[in-house]
């Protein structure tokens, strides 16, 4: 499994609704509310045999009220 971090910017007033929808998908390891440019930060383990872009698009990015995402790939833990 490959850990990937995804930040979500939500429509105003919809952060809790988006967070609930993300949790309902049961694919995030951790989900946090954050300050700054994005509203939520998720840690997701993507199976090694899956394309990250397709996996995230199919599993998460169709949730209503997600305005923008930022995906950070990981390579090696130190």
From TrEMBL:
Signal peptide: none
Originating organism: Paracoccus denitrificans (strain Pd 1222)
Name of the molecule in the record: Transcriptional regulator, AsnC family
Residue intervals passing through the bilayer: none
Domain of life: Bacteria
InterPro entries: Dimeric_a/b-barrel, Tscrpt_reg_AsnC/Lrp_C
Span of domain Transcription regulator AsnC/Lrp ligand binding: 6-76
